Amino acid sequence: MTQDNHGKAHKYGMVIDLDKCTGCGSCMVACMSENNVPFKENETDKKDSITWMKVFKLTNGKPFPDIDTCYLPRPCMHCGGKGDHGHSPCISVCPATATDYGYDTGIVSQIYTRCFGCRYCMGACPYHARYFNWWDPKWPDGMEEYLSPDVSPRMRGVVEKCSFCYHRYQEARDRAYHEERRDHIEEGEYQTACTQACPAGAITFGDLNNPEHEVYKLVKPDPHNCGRPREPKAFRLLERLQTNPKVYYISEREWVRKAGDNYRKGEWGKEIKVSHGKGH
Amino acid sequence: MFPFCFEWVWDAGHYLFFGGMWYTISILGLGMTFCLLKTIVDTLNGKGAGHGDDHH
Amino acid sequence: MDSALIPKGARRCPFPVFATGIAVVSVVLLWGVFAMVLCWLKGLNQTNMNDYYGFALWIWADLAVIAIGGGAFFTGLLKYVFGIDELKNIINLAVVIGFICYSSALLILAIDIGQPLRGWFIFWHANVHSMLTEVAFCLSLYFSVLTIEFIPLILENRQLDKVPFFHNLSHNMHGVMAVFAATGAFLSCFHQGSLGGVAGVLYGRPFAYREGLLVWPWTFFLFTWSAAAYGPCFTLTVCKMFEGITRKKLVKDNVIHLLAKISGWMITTYIIAKIIDTIYWAGVTAPEMGFSLMDFYSDNAFYGIWILFAEIVLGGIVPAVFLTVKRFRENKKLLLVAIILGTLGVCLNRWVMVLQVMAVPVMSFDTWALYIPSWQEVATTILPVAYGVILISLAYRYLPMFPQEQELYDSK
């Protein structure tokens, strides 16, 4: 296992084509049911609803008829952090080592039984990808029967987030070992629930370190530049913060690509230097 | 906190952090132990007896 | 009724009056305790926090009481390590305030975490790279230092002092207090700093993020410096409150003026550093992340540029000028204005570095997150104030907190 993010190990990531996304929310539903996400009695206040995968609605702010809308699904970005060394904003701040970076997968984990609910990681995450269990987990009567036995439900008072359906990775890895393929996992063997649920095929999932995988072909991550996309239509959310996410977005529309980050007046369109230095 | 916790790593961060912590605890612990022992000795030697406004 | 416990020669209000006062404050305390128990039993859904706004009002209170409690470590450092002996006349007050502030801070942390029974994980499974880990360790250790500093004062109670063992223990602890005070100052530098680091390391939050030295962002040093600078302002404010309520002079003016002068110069140097930090952050750090200064102060109902002005000018430059210039400092009213503004100024700084950090949107399509605390949050935030009032009143009544009280009374 290498202690950086550039080696031979897997680096699982996601590419979301925003021009294909219709905002139907299937990814959100699939994610909730796959990962045993509990319900609130009243779900009207979305700011404390648990949505590992959340679809944001963006508009270009123009009046009719020039108005344009874009739906942006946002899972956990599984940031590589400054310098892509695995020091994501949330991992470095967790006081109890309850969230960790898998150098073999690039996946940011969350250990529910270790988390004591200080919520510092939530403050550190600029994507609001982390959720707190404000209530005891509850499901409508009979729905407990549908819970996945592969995913542990979370207790009140701890933080949770998208795991890139890590239990599916474990299953694929176990199968590969069983079939004496060591850790050679085929692209189709490990796919997240949201990827499979998207009716428009907007979400692609795979190994960003593997040139054979579709995600690699779509964005062509630059290994010498912390995985920044070389594909001009691709971008990552808040690239300038150097969080180095493993979720990429693609859009033909310029205003959508611009909405992916913050730019001061006159900056958009110019070459902006993002120093991908060593970080902390 | 201790080397037998599984997240423990023998690196500079742990040396500095826990070195500082155990050093500080030692100072406080030894300081208080000294005070208590000296107080016991002093008290057994009769020091401080008869002190207090009622005895003046 | 309780005259045997009151320091010899000290004049205190009749016991029924004192007991009534304590009973009134106790009602507030019980209200806070009720809210605290609700949070523990029912969980943090009792608050108005949400996933956008994960730090409650009480986290601000936590940081604020630690900052204003900074008078304990700084006065201790000045007296025991730098040997400024006049400060022995106000050190007891500073220690009691510090003890109250730090015990409150620990209590708030115990309410704040989602799984209070797992609180010990922060020590056992410590992640040494987290600023919060550093806060927890230094805070708990420094609290034990404050307890050690408080014990001799408790033992000086008229009845306890009659017991030879306690008398000797108090005497011996005073003997080695310099070692404890130095350890306390060391710990304080790190935990005040790491509280600043908590915000400063958040490189996903451009409003909070600061560059720095080695692993410490500039906010680390600014927090330590500001706690040392403003802590004495609060010590002096409490002292003035005591003098106002009891209608007695309790500490001689030369002591007050000395501490005010030191505080003034500390605030002056701090506010210069803070201004430089703000200019660099607004001109270099934030723009590199795509933000202009006004992005942090516009498009919302509350956080305008006034807050930066209030923090730096009203809470920084004004008290700095009033406390450093002898003529102003020795004017009773201006001194009072300066120490109150100073106390409010540092509290405002902590507010900005915790609550505004959470409020500012980062993604371009995100919105400001403004939040109004629930009554449970307000009650648990007031709880430490009620507890502090009760403890400090008991300390004033039964312990020789102000060594010059008798002398000042006799000379009247």
UniProtKB/TrEMBL annotation, chain A:
Organism encoding this protein: Desulfamplus magnetovallimortis
Domain 4Fe-4S ferredoxin-type per the UniProt entry, residue ranges: 12-42, 106-135
Phylogenetic classification of the source organism: Bacteria, Pseudomonadati, Thermodesulfobacteriota, Desulfobacteria, Desulfobacterales
UniProt GO molecular function: 4 iron, 4 sulfur cluster binding; metal ion binding
Stated name of the protein: Molybdopterin oxidoreductase, iron-sulfur cluster-binding subunit
Signal peptide from the UniProt entry: none
InterPro entries the UniProt entry points to: 4Fe4S_Fe-S-bd, 4Fe4S_Fe_S_CS, ET_IronSulfur_Cluster-Binding, Menaquinone_reductase_QrcC
Entry annotated with the keyword 4Fe-4S: yes
Pfam families: Fer4_11, Fer4_2
Alphabetized UniProt keyword annotations: 4Fe-4S, Iron, Iron-sulfur, Metal-binding
Automatic annotation (TrEMBL), chain B:
Keywords for this protein: Membrane, Transmembrane, Transmembrane helix
TM ranges: 12-37
Entry protein name: Uncharacterized protein
From TrEMBL, chain C:
Residue runs in coiled coils: none
Pfam families for this protein: NrfD
Main location: membrane
Superkingdom classification of source: Bacteria
GO cellular component: plasma membrane
Keywords in alphabetical order: Cell membrane, Membrane, Transmembrane, Transmembrane helix
Membrane topology: Multi-pass membrane protein
Record-linked InterPro entries: Electron_transfer_protein, NrfD-like, NrfD_menaquinone_reductase
Subcellular location: Cell membrane
Membrane-spanning intervals of the chain: 21-43, 55-78, 90-111, 131-155, 176-203, 215-238, 258-281, 301-322, 334-358, 378-399
Family under the similarity heading: Belongs to the NrfD family.
Name of the protein described by the UniProt record: Molybdopterin oxidoreductase, transmembrane subunit
Lineage: Bacteria, Pseudomonadati, Thermodesulfobacteriota, Desulfobacteria, Desulfobacterales
